Automatic annotation (TrEMBL):
<keyword id="KW-0812">Transmembrane</keyword>
<keyword id="KW-0456">Lyase</keyword>
<dbReference type="GO" id="GO:0006096">
    <property type="term" value="P:glycolytic process"/>
</dbReference>
<keyword id="KW-0472">Membrane</keyword>
<keyword id="KW-0324">Glycolysis</keyword>
<protein>
    <recommendedName>
        <fullName>fructose-bisphosphate aldolase</fullName>
        <ecNumber>4.1.2.13</ecNumber>
    </recommendedName>
</protein>
<comment type="pathway">
    <text>Carbohydrate degradation; glycolysis; D-glyceraldehyde 3-phosphate and glycerone phosphate from D-glucose: step 4/4.</text>
</comment>
<feature type="region of interest" description="Disordered">
    <location>
        <begin position="1"/>
        <end position="28"/>
    </location>
</feature>
<dbReference type="InterPro" id="IPR013785">
    <property type="entry name" value="Aldolase_TIM"/>
</dbReference>
<keyword id="KW-1133">Transmembrane helix</keyword>
<comment type="similarity">
    <text>Belongs to the class I fructose-bisphosphate aldolase family.</text>
</comment>
<dbReference type="InterPro" id="IPR000741">
    <property type="entry name" value="FBA_I"/>
</dbReference>
<dbReference type="GO" id="GO:0004332">
    <property type="term" value="F:fructose-bisphosphate aldolase activity"/>
</dbReference>
<feature type="transmembrane region" description="Helical">
    <location>
        <begin position="32"/>
        <end position="51"/>
    </location>
</feature>
<dbReference type="Pfam" id="PF00274">
    <property type="entry name" value="Glycolytic"/>
</dbReference>
């Protein structure tokens, strides 16, 4: 009994046998105190590790030191009232937009001439992404540059099948010789930035780990090569909207893809993520999904994905339109802009700028007008879309399209009047 009482610390004082157990007891206490201290220390180290490795910092490696000249270009592209025009369609894709008109190089050149020499383009367009064919037809590049519009070069060579184990999945070609291929676009043609697109299909078993790993690694290799060539890389890991998947499956795929991409960028160690732009798909249900999502749900899901995956050091996310109509792309962008503005007002601003890099959602109406022979109407249509999206990205309702077009036309007339 007494022994038990001593052992559990309630022993009677003065008992001779109690001295020895008392020392043991104190040593025991000392030992457990040290043990607890070690535990607390370990927990603190673990917590610090988790904090520094949570979300964006997840994974091994580090980003390269700041590249100030490239960061300046990235900031120019992310002007709060401007976005990026993606006019880098491959000849084949361009042909698909021509509604039966013959797809000749001269026709593509004519359209790109209209874009690059459009009076007032610089009001709401910070940069234009071009296909290398347009750089080869170089005549109009200087005009755009002189107007203050930055030029971008699409550096990827399109997609190819992954392999038999990843049926239906694609990887992007063009890494071979990229380091030497990209330099002249900057040194000879004055390009300031570049683009590389990878695509991911959402299906029952896709995107697969293998497809994410391969494309993420290649996007990171491209980003490093572009920065070495003096170009700000836009990385475009596009999660495609094709399919009948719902919003939660789109969310899952987007998180896994973006995590993989930033992990790969960090693993390399030679990319300044502060001089990279992410061109991302908005997170939407598949285009043939039975369940629609409101613009608010799309914006919420998109921001949740980005906040969980994109490092704070990245300067900006520019959204692709991915087959959305002009109006829908603008409506989604406006919902995103509103959420960003609400967070700013609540003292929790997003770490990166949000903007647009639309292709079809800027050009569709304009091309229709052009193909019908009305170039002034084509210019007005494009400037109107750009103006509407510039407002939308700030969370401001685009004026009705007619008013926006009129404002843009006035800006164009003013610009044209300047000798
Ligand atoms: C594809 O890559 C080759 C070199 O590998 C290059 O010469 C060619 O211009 C590229 N084409 C496109 C459309 O990017
Ligand atoms: C995506 O879904 C799979 C299958 O349901 C799940 O195991 C995985 O944890 C999910 N990943 C994310 C990032 O949500
Ligand atoms: C999305 O909506 C949920 C629930 O309404 C909210 O708690 C969350 O903060 C929203 N996320 C963002 C990024 O706005």
């Amino acid at each position: 009994m007494a022994k038990d009482a001593v052992a559990d610390g309630s022993g009677t004082a003065g008992e001779p046998a109690s001295r020895q157990p008392k020392r043991q007891r104190e040593e025991g206490r000392k030992t457990s105190a040290i043990f607890v201290a070690v535990l607390i220390g370990a927990a603190a180290v673990f917590a610090a590790y988790m904090m520094s490795h949570s979300e964006d910092a997840r994974g091994r490696g580090r980003y390269a030191a700041a590249m100030p000249a490239l960061r300046t270009v990235a900031a120019q592209l992310l002007h709060p009232e401007k976005g990026i025009l993606a006019a880098d369609e491959s000849p084949k894709t361009f042909g698909a937009r021509l509604a039966g008109h013959p797809n000749k190089p001269s026709l593509r050149q004519t359209w790109r001439h209209i874009l690059l020499t459009m009076p007032g383009l610089e009001a709401h367009i910070s940069g234009v992404i071009l296909h290398e064919e347009t750089f080869a037809q170089a005549a109009d590049l200087a005009a755009a540059r002189a107007a203050g519009v930055l030029l971008g070069i699409k550096l990827d060579n399109g997609t190819a099948p992954m392999g038999p184990k990843q049926a239906g999945e694609l990887h992007t070609r063009g890494l071979e010789g990229l380091a030497s291929r990209c330099a002249p676009f900057h040194t000879q043609h004055g390009a300031a930035f570049a683009k590389w697109r990878a695509v991911f299909r959402v299906g029952p078993h896709t995107p697969s780990k293998a497809a994410i790993r391969r494309n993420a690694k290649d996007l990171a290799s491209y980003a490093a090569a572009a920065q070495k060539c003096g170009l700000v890389p836009i990385i475009e890991p596009e999660v495609l909207a094709d399919g009948d998947h719902d919003l939660s499956r789109a969310t899952n795929a987007s998180v896994r893809v973006l995590r993989g991409v930033f992990r790969a960028l960090k693993k390399r160690g030679d990319v300044d993520v502060g001089a990279v732009l992410l061109k991302a798909a908005m997170v939407t249900p598949g285009s043939s999904s039975a369940v629609a999502a409101t613009p608010e749900q799309v914006a919420n899901a998109t921001l949740r994905v980005l906040l969980g995956t994109v490092p704070r050091a990245l300067p900006g996310v520019v959204f692709l339109s991915g087959g959305q109509s002009e109006e829908l792309a603008t409506t989604h962008l406006e919902a995103l802009g509103r959420l960003a503005a609400e967070r700013r007002a609540a003292g929790k601003p997003l770490p990166w700028a949000l903007s647009f890099s639309f292709g079809r959602a800027l050009q569709a109406s304009a091309m229709k007008q052009w193909l019908a022979g009305d170039v002034p109407a084509a210019q007005q249509a494009l400037l109107g879309r750009a103006a509407a999206n510039a407002l939308a990205q700030q969370g401001r309702a685009p004026q009705d399209p007619a008013a926006a077009a009129a404002a843009a036309a006035a800006a164009a007339a003013a610009a044209a009047a300047v000798p």
